[in-house]
Specification:
The protein contains three helices and 18 strands. It has 234 residues and is of the alpha+beta class. The radius of gyration is 22 Å and the shape is globular.
């Protein structure tokens, strides 16, 4: 009798677990429109879910449609000109996003103490004493880089001491107690998590900040920083 009861409990548990798994894997469709601060539609913007790129882009009217897991928490829009904006999904199936000066836009703010002299790296400023040894530069306008398939390949081949692991870039084998620390990725002044969507032909310059040169980004730059400026006019 006890064995039968245990069997029934086990079967019930497996059924509940199966239903829960199906619900978590179920996908929902989210649609919306993306516009700039003046209300004009933004086309060819990358739709991101929980910080990861998807295959979805906005069309010429700024419309997008993307399927996401029901467990997804945030939707983001990445553009090379306006940066990235994120919003919580919170069960919504229609989310319209407008770029502008909002709390959800992640702009990279360098942390240089007042009065410290710096040298421009194309977007930010770095202490002058760190320039010669702590920064490696790539001129994206040089035609020799056109043959590279990705920015990751360009950086790994052109900059010494850099290793690419998936979408992470490790500078000088930077580590802590928990493992490797990837470099901070900054595109046109905006923090990003993946460079795969940016073609090498769109790059104007790349600055690889090592060691103390990346300290202008505070704790975010503990593993160094990759600062990219694109050819898109802002």
């Amino acid at each position: 009798m006890k064995l039968k009861v245990l069997f029934l409990i086990l079967v019930s548990f497996l059924c509940i677990y199966g239903i829960s798994a199906q619900k978590s894997n179920k996908k929902v469709t989210i649609t919306g429109t993306v516009v700039d601060a003046t209300g004009n539609p933004i086309g060819n913007a990358i739709v991101m879910i929980d910080g990861k790129n998807t295959s979805s882009l906005t069309d010429s009217k700024g419309h997008y449609q993307v399927k996401v897991k029901s467990s997804a928490e945030k939707i983001g829009i990445l553009t090379f000109g306006s940066g990235i904006i994120e919003e919580s999904i919170s069960g919504r199936t229609e989310i319209n996003l407008k770029f502008g000066v909002t709390a959800t836009q992640k702009k990279a703010e360098p942390e240089i103490e007042p009065g410290e002299q710096g040298v421009s790296t194309g977007y930010n400023y770095v202490k002058e004493k760190n320039v010669t040894t702590e920064i490696s530069s790539i001129d994206g306008t040089n035609k020799k880089y056109a043959s590279y398939s990705s920015i990751y390949e360009m950086i790994q081949r052109e900059v010494a001491g850099v290793k690419v692991s998936g979408t992470d870039i490790i500078i000088n084998d930077s580590k802590d107690f928990f493992g490797s620390i990837p470099a901070l990725l900054v595109v046109d002044g905006t923090y990003v998590t993946d460079l795969s969507a940016i073609p090498p032909s769109a790059v104007e310059s790349i600055e690889v900040l090592k060691g103390t040169a990346a300290a202008i980004y505070g704790s975010r730059g503990y593993g160094g920083a990759i600062v990219i400026k694109t050819k898109i006019k802002h």
